[in-house]
Structures are given as structure tokens and as C-alpha cells.
Design a protein that fits this description.
The protein has 71 residues and is an all-alpha fold. 49% of the residues lie in helices and 0% in strands. The chain has one domain: Orthogonal Bundle (Non-ribosomal Peptide Synthetase Peptidyl Carrier Protein, Chain A), CATH 1.10.1200.
């Protein structure tokens, strides 16, 4: 998935009005909470090259870390 498309999809998943960038820290995004994590996992797994693990999402610190999970 292309970076711009990923950022748009993530903003939709989180229902976030803020423009997201790959350099943003996840803890700085108010909508990145337990519901956001579950929704991310459910929605983005179909785009991933391999199965995304919850532990990998939990370890992510930046939006770019989530993008990397797609492989």
C-alpha cells in the first residue's frame, strides 16, 4: 500500500480530523486508543504481507512503525 493511501486509511480508521504523517508519535494522537488498535488490526490485516500481531502494534511508537507492519 502506498504511503499516502495508508495515511488516509489510518485517519479513517481512527476517525481523526488531524492530518497524519509517518513521523507522528502514536501517543500524541488522541484517537489512538484500544478501540483504534483493534480497528487498525481488523482493517489493515488484509493489506499486510503476513499476519499482524497485537504485540507488534503495541510495540509501535510512530505511525511509520504501523506502516512497516504491512510489509
Amino acid at each position: 500500500m502506498e504511503e499516502g493511501k495508508f495515511l488516509e486509511k489510518l485517519a479513517d480508521i481512527l476517525d481523526c480530523d488531524e492530518e497524519l504523517t509517518l513521523d507522528m508519535k502514536l501517543d500524541g494522537i488522541d484517537e489512538w486508543d484500544s478501540l483504534g488498535i483493534i480497528t487498525f488490526l481488523a482493517e489493515m490485516e488484509k493489506y499486510a504481507a503476513s499476519q499482524i500481531k497485537a504485540a507488534d502494534i503495541k510495540a509501535a511508537e510512530k505511525v511509520s512503525d504501523l506502516y512497516a507492519l504491512l510489509g
